[in-house]
Amino acid sequence: MRHGQGARRAQGGAASGSSRRAERDRRALLAQFVLWRRPSAGEARADAEAAQVETLLRLKGDQLESPDPTYWTEELLDSLLTQVVPRKMVQPREEAMLLVPALTGFLEFLASRRRWHRASIDPARARTVLEQLEFSVLEAAEDPDRRSFSGNILNYAASLGVQLEDQQELADFMEWYNTALTDGERHELTDTGRLANPGRPFTSGTSGPSPRPTGGSAFFPPPPGGDGAGADPVDDEWDDAAEGLGAPDWPWFLPDPDEERADWPEEDGEAAEEDGEAAEDPAAFAALHARVPLVPRAVRLLELVGEGRAITATGALRRADVHTLVQKWGLESGSEQISSMWDVPELVGPWTALIAGGWIELTSTRARPGEAATPYVAAEEDPEGFVQFARALLGILLLTMSQQEAEHGGLEGGADTFASLFYVTSADGLVLPDVLHDGTDMPRVPRGPDGGPDLDEALRLMYTTSDLVRLTAYGILHRDAERAAPDTHFSANLAVMGVVVSTADLLFHGPDQE
Predict the structure, then answer these.
(1) Which pairs from 268-275 meet CB under 8 Å and 24+ separation?
(2) Sequence-separated (6 or more) residues with CB below 8 Å from residue 337
(3) Least packed by Cβ within 10 Å: which of 19, 222, 472, 489?
(4) pTM, whole model, 2 decimals?
């Protein structure tokens, strides 16, 4: 039983759990889309397209009963863009013009990352259908007969510059609509979405001050309680993670989020001093990323694959290649104990990241070089390009693990694990207790109703510890079993800290919105 299945975490039942998983998976998929799209389209455009695609995916699931973001047919594309969107979305013409390009980019992402549903139409046919629909989408968006009466009202409000997400501005507009317009003017507006010459034109700001915007985006909502100004970033990130992944409260095994944490001061040692200086020097910053074991391992795997390499039916390197790498890299796993690459986490981590990020593509029998959005370049040739590669590699792996179910390699601890990573990557690192070493009563575990250890809470710790141990084996974190024995100390360098922060921001907040 996973920690999310305890009695206090079962509110809403299986249906709400399934809904949370679908929401989490959609967020992770869109975050990967953003990372894939930014190098070719630029940050602003990629973020805007992702916001539009998220709205389309929600409408596809809610209105067309097709929640799978990887499944597309001609009928779904036509119905979504020419019937559902005009009825449910309020947008100016310039935004409507971006719908087809945004969705086209998303479908290309699915196809290039082998996420295309087998029952979907062919990707090339989908691109053709979207090209044929481009004019129809604009025509539908401007047809008042395809919008609901409320849609016509809101479209008119948007044309006047009303910020529909601003509750006060919208309240001002609706007050004007209900009190300042004649019956004839209201009928004209609801029927056509236009009002040629109102007797009393709308003036904003008639109902009081407008509240501060709360941030967030269409598909990554802002944290509960406002914009979080002045709040602790770790606490904020975990609150969003908890909402998205179903965790109920702050993990008991982590420091209090209000507790002051040490930064990376020079007196903490040579490594911290080097890390702190690295960001000022491109070559040193590249070297900092190269010290994350997963990164050089991934580079060696790219070199091994070369122009092509035979693989097994499970998409893994052949056993002979695995044995060679284990011996060459000096890994602890004895080669005689290995039956598959999947038995060697030091290979599984970088291999998974390289495939998920498109650096390696798989056929039924071979691995071959792919066309990744952020290609690999050697640090000595282009330090900044190498840093971009390393950060993309690390971020893709974290996003992939966040998206997958635990039984398929995903994070078992969910939001607890992400919260832990913020502390692991601090200057002090993180010590997790070994509660099993304390005996069967596990005195450090919160007490249950019967006075004994709350097993759900113990499981939360165990799943998080399991995730951190696996991330260590993958080559992202460092584990020191002696420093805090019998407990375990986890740490990471500043390169990993930056990736954790940016990945959590993408996963739980979404792309930056202007």
Answers:
(1) 268/427, 271/493, 272/427, 275/493, 275/494, 275/495
(2) 343
(3) 19
(4) 0.57
